[in-house]
Design goal:
This protein is about 35% helix and about 30% strand. The protein has about 260 residues and is of the alpha+beta class. It has 2 domains: about 140 residues, Beta Barrel (OB fold (Dihydrolipoamide Acetyltransferase, E2P)); about 60 residues, Listeria-Bacteroides repeat domain (Immunoglobulin-like). The longest helix is centred in the first third of the chain and has 26 residues.
Length: about 260
């Protein structure tokens, strides 16, 4: 009887946990209907008979019109792709990320966009039509999307085929400068600087030790920090000075006693 009671309690606890988990997942997801396109990373949907403007979470596509160069071709491709995908979708869902606020400063909804069970943000990144951007938290699909972005960069797809999203990193080793170009959101590969007679401490950025897990989003300058090595000659000299000090100290004490 006790065993049956324990099994019943265990079953009820598991069932309660399952229901709670399912409800929590459903709470973060809304099914919506397509209303109209705006551009590659923004669209209007209808939810509960109300039109809502949605900004696709964690990505940015080039503007449809470039301020200096006119129409951006990648921006146009991104906009066309997004509109076709949403317009022809049978099922559209918005997933809200617990690590993000639900609205941006323009009162647009922030969400992951699921089109027929495919993540639209990921598809845009795979084609090089979008980059990861506006990351203010540890969002749910970031690791997955960074891997997709790295592949797009390697293949030089879309926006990565130009120099528009390349930044310059300068490594200053005293008067010597090593320059590297990196794509936006890339991490730098760590290496040590060398200077004769000195020990390398690290790379300094804005008076702080630079973290090589940082993703690059601007031109930066890193300065090598060194600490002078103590040579054998310096050690011997220090010991001799120390001996001289104690010998003189004893001599002075003897003279004072006399």
């Amino acid at each position: 009887m006790k065993i049956l009671f324990k099994k019943t309690i265990f079953f009820l606890l598991c069932f309660t946990f399952f229901i709670t988990y399912v409800n929590a997942e459903e709470y973060n997801i809304d099914s919506v209907k397509f209303k109209k396109c705006v551009d590659g990373d923004t669209a209007v949907f209808t939810l509960n008979n109300e039109d809502i403007k949605v900004r696709f979470l964690a990505i940015d596509t080039p503007e449809t019109v470039h301020p200096n160069q006119g129409k951006d071709p990648i921006g146009l491709l991104a906009s066309e792709y997004t509109c076709n995908k949403i317009n022809n979708a049978k099922n559209i869902k918005l997933e809200y990320d617990e690590a993000s606020s639900k609205y941006d400063k323009y009162k647009r909804v922030l969400a992951w966009i699921w089109i027929d069970n495919h993540l639209l943000q990921e598809e845009l990144i795979n084609l090089g039509y979008a980059k990861l951007a506006y990351l203010y938290g540890d969002y749910k699909y970031l690791d997955r999307l960074f891997k997709s972005e790295d592949i797009s960069k390697e293949k030089k797809l879309g926006m990565w085929s130009t120099k528009d999203f390349v930044y310059k990193v300068e490594f200053h080793i005293d008067d010597k400068i090593i320059t590297k170009e990196v794509f936006e959101n890339d991490k730098l590969k760590y290496f040590e600087a060398h200077k004769k007679g000195y020990q390398f401490i690290g790379w300094n950025y804005n008076n702080k030790n630079f973290d090589f897990n940082t993703r690059i989003n601007d031109d930066i300058i890193l300065k090598a920090e060194f600490k002078k090595n103590i040579t054998n000659s310096e050690i011997i000299l220090f010991v001799l000075l120390l001996l001289a000090y104690f010998i003189n100290k004893k001599v002075i004490k003897k003279k004072l006693k006399k």
